[in-house]
Every structure is written in structure tokens, then in C-alpha cells.
């Protein structure tokens, strides 16, 4: 038996691999890795296959997919390795989830400094996407250092100070510079796990922009936006703003005695793919009317962290609600000087298609300084909207929206993307050349690759293959010679 045949016979069978949006679908061999020695062995025996670290699969598109190659599932690498209680720095393996961090550290008075709208991602995946949330910052801002395994088998530590090129290429670098083995992250001290919450109604886009401009950077904020509203109601929204409550601000004695509870809410699992007509423009119009209509002009209350940060986590597998062809999230950012005009124009284009988004989120990044070469968070406003793929008609609309976003100097978020063209991406990310230079230095043979990397020409084009998508269309794909 040749070495190649021996490895093939020990390989797990190919399996379906997809992102949270379930579009597109890919086939890869998935290895669950638990120890560093297993990871080293796979790197040494890969026999020409390309590898990709994979976390909880919460990126929407093809970032964690690796057609016909190997995905290394890091979720079993989920141990805490240390905690510096004085500085609040946790050292954890890459497969530790945000939920694990919360469950262990909330009772001890610490919270994640940045969290996306779900607690299920891993730390490794969150670093690779350089996630953002309701707070003002991106995750990279709080990373002390990363422990990585590079393509040549070397184990290195990188940070904003040490091997800083590698660090800034890795945060937001979508797993393509090397494998993140563990992360040292600075947590945020909290006195209580409750949030002083304000829900404020905005009657249109001008109004919500005004509210964001008045919001201090220390406040955590985001707005739900009614993407079906038109004319003078265009952009009507509800701003959700909050700050962790101090112990003395808690009103009831129960809460004051136990200010740091971990919240476990009952969950509903979406049991099967919804028929595509369930989430249609009419049902969403009804929901939006009701949600906006019933919301008072201003509510002030105290809520637990789970209600504030993770309302979507109450529904497990909610991505099934978009039907069997999956969904796409369109998340774009427009820089400060033209944020209002840019967001308005794209929103008008979206609402004129009549394509409704159940989830529609608007957020401002203030003057944040981010050195991540491919990181999404930069100053400006972003809007994120979910659409079912259905018959694929939405893809044509998105191509048009891309042109508008580009015209305003904006960008799309890689963690949510599965369809942008390579040229569009290159025009949106001016530091791509710099990133490619680091990639060429640390991974000259492109050991680390993904479907996203092939689609966006993040690795050099060696061959072009043909890939069949779930929609049955044959689309061209760039990829390595197999
Ligand atoms: C409901 C929902 C809400 C969300 N809200 C937000 C939000 O508010 N803000 C935001 O920024 N994002 C948001 N996201 C996106 C999500 O937070 C990120 O895509 C994410 O953190 C993915 O982590 P993961 O563990 O699922 O990684 P995966 O999806 O498995 O992988 C994502 C990327 O990380 C790489 N990767 C994973 N592990 C490693 C490793 N050990 N070494 C090297 N590379 C690795 C993969 O190769 C891939 O490129 C949301 C997603 C969902 C489903």
C-alpha cells in the first residue's frame, strides 16, 4: 500500500460541510482534533491536501468550508489553560466557546469584552473573523496573544507587539495564515450580569442616525430596522442601548444578593426546514408592523445579559426557518462621511425589491482604530440583513447592491459572505496586498485554504475547476490542482 493509499484508508469519509447560512454546501473530510500532537500529525501527513481550522460553523458562508480537502474541527480542543485574575486574562484553547467563557467567568465577575449576537462560536473562529458586537470595539483590541501552528510545523506566539505582521494578518484573516491553537484574551470586569437597557423608537433613518451620533462610545448599542418601510418611514427602527449595571443599581434584594447569575433559558429547536413561504414579505411585513407599532417611544429597564446579547440563541437551528436552499446575510459598511447617503441608497434599493429581511441590524462604529488587514470593523455604519436563497434571484440583487457599496467606499463582512466576486473584494479591502505578502511568507505553499479563499483569489489561481452548487447551477471555481 502506498503512503497515499494508507492515508486515504485512514481518512474519515467526506461529509457535508456548510456555514450557518447553509449556502453553499461543500464536501470535505473532517477531523475532530483534541490535542496538539494530533494536529501536528495531520499537518505532517496531509500528502498535498489543504487544511482549514474550523470552529462551531457559525460563519454564514464558505469561510469554514474546504471542498475535497481537510477541515480540522477544533471544537474538542476546549480546555481552559490558565487565568491571570489580576489582569483578567484568560488563556483558552481555540475550541472553547464563548458560552463556556461566560458560564465559567460570569460568576467570578468577568464578561467577554466583545461578543457577537450568538454565544455558540469558538474563540478560534471569533479571532479568525475578528468579531464585533454591540460594544464599540472589535475582538482583536482585547487579544493579548495568539498561540499558532504555522504551515512549516513551527509553533509561534504572535501579538500586536510580537510578530505583529502575522498577528494583524490572522485577526480577521479567516483561518488562512495558520492554525490558532489557543488564545489569551483580556476579559471585562463586571459587577453584575444585568444590563441597564433602553429601547428607543426612531421614526426614520435621520432619526436613528441622530440617536447613534448622540450615543457615547462606552454604551453598547445596535438598532433593529424595519427594512420594508418606505418613503418618509424609510429606516424606522428601534435602538437597543445598554451598559452593564453596577451592583448598587440593582433594585431587588434578590438581584443585589446574587448579582452575577449565569442565565439558562429554555430553548426552542426549529425541528425541520420551513417551507419557503413561511418567511415571506407579507409575514415579515406583519411582524415588522406589530413589533414597531407595539414598541413604546422609550423603555428603560434592567435585563439579564442573555436577553440583551443573545435573543436569537433562544431558537436553536433557526437557520432552518429560511427553507432548504439556505440563506444569505448581506452585511455592508459605509465609511463615516457618506454613511447616511450610502446606507439610505442601499436600503431604498432593498426595500424597492420587496425582499424582506427578518433580521435587520444597523450599527455605528465610531472612531475605532483597527489594524487587522482583512478585519471588517472600521469607522462607519453597517447594516446586516438576512435573505432566503430560494431560487437564487436574490444573488442578482446583491450584485447591484455591491456596486452601490463600492461606490461609497464601503465593504462587506467576510464572515457573512458566500458570493461576492474576487474583484469586488479586492476593491473593498485596500490592505489585501499586504495580507497576501504575509500569507506568502508564512504559508508559501498554501497549506491553509478554504472555499472562500479560492473564490476570492486569496490564494494564487493554480487551476480552475468546476463546482456544482446546491442550486444545481454549474459555477466556475478557482482552486488548487487536486
Ligand atoms: C446568529 C449569529 C449571529 C452572529 N452575530 C455576529 C455579530 O454580531 N458580529 C460578528 O462579528 N459576527 C457575528 N456572527 C458570525 C460569527 O460570530 C462568526 O463568524 C464566528 O465567530 C464564527 O466562529 P465559529 O467558531 O463558528 O467559526 P467557524 O464558522 O467554524 O469558522 C470561521 C472562520 O474561522 C476559522 N477558524 C475557526 N477555528 C480556527 C482555528 N482554530 N484556527 C484557525 N482558523 C480557525 C475558519 O477557518 C473560518 O475561516 C454571527 C453568527 C450567527 C450564527
Put simply, the count of helices is 14
Strand content: 25-35%
CATH architecture of the domain at 194-420: 2-Layer Sandwich
Largest β-sheet summary:
8 strands, antiparallel
Quaternary organization: single chain
> Percent of residues in helical segments?
25-40%
CATH topology value of the domain at 194-420: Alpha-Beta Plaits
**Which sequence of strands runs across the widest sheet?**
16-12-14-13-19-20-18-21
Shape verdict: globular
Low-confidence stretches: 463-482
Bound molecules: flavin-adenine dinucleotide
Secondary-structure content class: alpha+beta
* Beginning-to-end CA distance, first to last residue: 20 Å
Rg estimate, integer Å? 22 Å
Average residue-wise pLDDT:
91
The top level CATH class name of the domain at 194-420: Alpha Beta
DSSP E strands, number: 23
Topology:
Layout: H1 3-10, E1 14-18, E2 25-32, H2 36-44, E3 51-54, E4 70-73, E5 80-84, E6 89-93, H3 98-105, E7 110-111, H4 123-129, E8 143-149, E9 155-158, H5 164-170, E10 179-186, E11 188-189, E12 194-202, H6 205-214, E13 220-225, E14 237-244, H7 253-257, E15 268-269, H8 281-294, E16 298-304, H9 305-309, E17 315-316, E18 327-334, H10 339-353, E19 360-365, E20 380-388, H11 393-407, E21 411-412, H12 422-428, H13 432-442, H14 451-455, E22 463-468, E23 474-479
Parallel strand pairs: 2-4, 3-4, 15-17
Antiparallel strand pairs: 1-2, 5-6, 6-10, 7-11, 8-9, 8-10, 12-14, 12-16, 13-14, 13-19, 18-20, 18-21, 19-20, 22-23
Helix pairs in contact: 10-11
This protein binds flavin-adenine dinucleotide (FAD).
